[in-house]
Amino acid sequence: MIDLALPVFDPADEKWPQIVYLLGVLILVGGGIFAYRGRLGDALKHALLWVGAALVLVTLYAYRAPLSQFAAPVLDALAPGRMTVSLGEGGREVLTIAPGPSGHFNLTAEVEGVPVDFVVDTGASSLVLTYEDAERVGIDVGALTFNRMVETANGMTLQARAEIGELKIGSMTLRNVPAGIAQEGQLFTNLLGMNVLSRFAAWRVESGRLIIEPEI
Q1: pTM > 0.90
Q2: What CA–CA distance (Å, rounded) separates 131 from 108?
């Protein structure tokens, strides 16, 4: 007896995406042939244009790292203080920060999911938040104890200890980062200190830009 039952396709089958993709390509090619019927010259010309555009895009992607380095000085002049993420050796992401108009390295990080502006301060031993920004990111400043004596550019002052659950800089995420919280009105700029920079594999100043490499 001959079984005339039609084959049943399982939607969870891994081959379905390939089948849908091939059908899409066939429809696209078939539609193109139908649209250009009798106009083979136009069809070839447009096909060559698309192939050329694809090759340009592939070339730009393949050489994106050296092109980024070549364009960096121009971009620095147009947008001082910018922060970019590029691919370094081995395909690892590298964070590059251009100096701002003041000559300092400024960056915007996410503290507990909230954007916060920082000045990178290699002379500071730890990350320090202003009282106002600490409150803004959800730290209970009313429960803090300001009993840590520290020396600042404006003299001695007291700070409180806290911990940041998640600090995101570019595409790099750090967790459980110790932080100092300044007293209200005592600090007006958040500082990104060495306890953050030391969590990365390497950091350096090169060609006037701060380069941070993630952990290996």
Answers
A1: no
A2: 17
